[in-house]
Design brief:
By secondary structure, the chain is mostly beta strands. The chain has strands spanning 4-7, 10-13, 18-24, 33-39, 46-51, 58-60, 68-73, 78-83, 92-99, 111-112, 116-121. It is 0% helix and 48% strand. The relative contact order is 0.32.
Amino acid sequence: QRQLVESGGGLVQAGGSLRLSCAASGSTFSTYAMGWFRQAPGKEREFVAGIRQSGGYTYYADSVKGRFIISRDNAKNTVYLQLNSLKPDDTAVYYCAAAGFVFFDAARYSSWGRGTQVTVSS
């Protein structure tokens, strides 16, 4: 079972930035597409961003396009999510997940981390 561990969350003022990291165990990280999802209280888990195995293709939810940047370092078995121009609506627990392809549906992902809390104050 692949282990994913998120870090980098915290409390930030609106307009601020954070960088989330997701470290994966194992030697096959480069064979997985990676996704970032988020879940706010009382809401469903939603797709935020995804990146293909080589990092050459990235995908974003419309709500974060132009503000968030997903990247990966296969040598470090790590995927990142740079959060810029944060808004209070971005407050949620952020999760990383692994799958064979970038899917927008959380149910298609086989491995999940435990999440990291991002709180944006107004």
